[in-house]
Amino acid sequence: MSEKSNMARREFLGQGTKLVAAAAAMGSIKNAQASTDKTRIALIGTGSRGSETWGRRLLQQLPDHIEMVGLCDINPKRVKYAQGYIGTNAPLYQAKDFEKMIQETKPDTVIITTPDCFHAQYVVRTLELGCNAMSEKPLATESEQCQKLLDAEIRTGKTVTTTFNARHSAYAEEIKKFILSGEMGRIISAEYHEYLDIDHGASYFRRWHGKARYSGSLLVHKASHHFDQMNWWLDAEPVEVHAFGKVDFYGKNNAFRGRNCRSCPFTSKCKFYWDITQSKRMVDLYVNNEDADGYLRDGCVWDNDIDTYDSMTVEVKYNSGVILAYTLNAYAPYEGQSIHFNGENGRLDIRNFQRQAWDVEYDTELRYSKSFGKSRSWTLKEGEGEHGGADAKLKRLLFVPGETDPLSKLAGSRAGVMSSLIGIAARKSIQTGERVKIADLVNIPLKWKW
To answer: Is this model's pTM higher than 0.85 or not?
Structure first.
C-alpha cells in the first residue's frame, strides 16, 4: 500500500480570462439566485478550518440560507466533536462512507476541507455523484489531479467553486479597483513578497503541511492564495514558471529533535516549543482524538522528514506579457506582504503587514508613484472578522441570493487550477532545474462549461 493510501486509511493518518472569470461568477450567482430555499451542505473534513469557518461560523452567519445535512471525516471521534462544536444535528459519516453520505443526505453542495492532497479526488467524486463541489485552496496538488478535475466538470455538468477568500480582503479589492481604473496604463511587471513570521510560519512545519506529499509544499498550499490574487489582479494566466527553493531553516537544520512537543526531552532549550494543552480548542479537536488516527498536531518543526521548502523564489511569465517575481520565506521576524506593480505610467506599492516590528498601528499602505507628476499615498483599515472580514464577504456571495460581484471575485475551477499549477510547476522547476511550461502540465478543455 502506498504512503498516501495509508494516510487516507488512517486520516490522515487523517476565451479570454475576463470571460472565464465572468462565467464562473455568473454560474455561482445563478445557482444562489435559482431558489430562496436553503442550500443543503455536506462537509468532508472537520479539522480546524472545516469545523470553524465552513461549519460553526457559516451556520451562525447565514442561518436563513444554509442547512447542514451531513458531516464526514476519517476520524470518527473528531467528527463527533465537530458536530457539537458546529451546533448541528446533521448525521455523521466516516470517510469510507463518503458516497453513502451523498446518497442518503442529498446535498446541493459538498464543501471539501480535507488535507490538500485529497481535495481533487473528493471534488471529482462529488461531481460524479451529482452535486456541486466547493473546495478550500489549493484545488489540487498534482497536475494529474488538475486534469481529472477539469475533465469531470465538463463530463458531469456540475460546478466547482474554489474558496479564494484572499480575493475578498479590503486591500485585494482596492488593488483590483486601482488596476481597473487604468491610471497605471499597461502593467509590465509585478512583484509579490510573502513573509511568514516564526509563529505562523513554524505552525506549518508542525502539521502535515511540512510534508510536500500532503500539501504540495507551501508553493501550492500557501502560495496558491497569492498566485490566484495575482492572476485575478492582472486578469491573465501563467504560461511559464522558473523557481528555486530549499529547506534551510526547519527540518534537518537543527542539532536536536523530538517526535512532538509534548513528548520532547528538549523543551527547555527549544525556542519553538509549543504547549498545545494551553488551547482548549486544539485539545478538543486534535489531542483528544489522536488515538483514532495517530495525527499529532504539535509535531516537531525539526522533523528530518520535512521537505516543504521554507525559502523559495519564483518567476512567472503571463500570457499578457507581464512577468512576476515572487518570494516566500517562512521564518521572518514579522508577517505580511510587500506587493508592487510596474506600469507604463508609474508604480503601485502596497505594504500590508499583519504583525510587524514597527511600533505603529497596523494599516495597509498604498502608494502610487507617477513617472511624470505628483505621487500620492493612502491607507486602508483591516475589516472585522476572519481574515479581515474576507471570509464573511465570500460566504454572502456564495449563498445569499441577489448578492452582486462586480469585481468577479468568485472563483471557479479554472482559477483554482491555474493557481495550483503555478505552484506545481515551481516545485517541478526546483526539482529539475528547468523552466516549466503550464501547457506541458495539463490540457485545458477547449469546450468550457460552467
So the answer is: yes
